């Protein structure tokens, strides 16, 4: 009689590149911003307010609509930039944009009533958590470490430069 022992199938958990984590976070933020604005329309009187030419206490104008476009375009562009920029520029761009985006998200509470305080606290809280994740991911971007042997080898492999290039 044989005793059958089974080992559990362990799932592989490969590391996710920082660029992919950042792009995923910006994608999540972008969708949240869109849906939060969409759900805002369900508040009583909001459609009538928009028909009357006012959004969030602001008169509807080309400037306001352009501002709304930029608010959505930034995370959309950050998805692409997070995947394509070189590491050093990518890190700096994510740190700057995420830092500037936190006050922009908090500003969404402008004109809110106490009836919707929980809604705004929840939605803005989730947005800020995603932005904090972006900041942490960019801030802790792994550094490449080179051994002394690698550094010595790279000095030998440096291309020769002509006097005009030096």
Q: How would you describe this protein?
A:
63% of the residues lie in helices and 2% in strands. The protein is mainly α and 166 residues long. It has a two-stranded antiparallel sheet with strand order 1-2.
Mean pLDDT: 86
Strand order, sheet with most strands: 1-2
So what's the overall shape? flat
Low-confidence stretches: none
**Count of the domains:** 1
Gyration radius, in Å: 24 Å
Q: Output the number of helix runs.
A: 6
Share of β-strand residues: under 5%
- Please report the total strand number as a whole number: 2
Q: Kindly, what is the distance between the CA atoms of the first and last residues, rounded to a whole number of angstroms?
A: 78 Å
Reported for the largest beta sheet, the result is: 2 strands, antiparallel
Give me the strand/helix succession. HHEEHHHH
Find the structural class using helix and strand composition. Answer: mainly alpha
Helical residue percent band: 55-70%
List strands and helices in order, with pairings.
Elements: H1 18-40, H2 46-51, E1 54-55, E2 58-59, H3 62-84, H4 87-106, H5 117-139, H6 148-156
Antiparallel strand pairs: 1-2
Provide key terms for this protein.
DUF6326; mainly alpha; flat; two-stranded antiparallel ribbon; transmembrane helix; transmembrane; 166 residues
Quick structural gist:
By secondary structure, this protein is mainly α. It has six helices and two strands, in the order ααββαααα.
């Amino acid at each position: 009689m044989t005793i059958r022992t089974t080992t559990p199938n362990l799932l592989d958990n490969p590391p996710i590149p920082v660029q992919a984590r950042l792009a995923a976070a910006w994608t999540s933020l972008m969708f949240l911003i869109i849906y939060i604005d969409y759900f805002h329309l369900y508040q009583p009187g909001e459609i009538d307010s928009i028909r009357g030419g006012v959004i969030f206490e602001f008169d509807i104008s080309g400037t306001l609509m352009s501002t709304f476009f930029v608010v959505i375009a930034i995370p959309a562009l950050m998805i692409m930039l997070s995947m394509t920029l070189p590491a050093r520029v990518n890190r700096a761009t994510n740190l700057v944009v995420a830092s500037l985006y936190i006050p922009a998200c908090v500003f969404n509470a402008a004109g809110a009533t106490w009836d919707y305080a929980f809604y705004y606290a929840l939605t803005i809280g989730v947005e800020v958590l995603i932005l904090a994740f972006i900041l942490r991911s960019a801030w802790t971007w792994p550094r490449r470490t080179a051994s002394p042997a690698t550094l010595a080898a790279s000095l030998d492999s440096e291309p020769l430069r002509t006097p005009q290039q030096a």
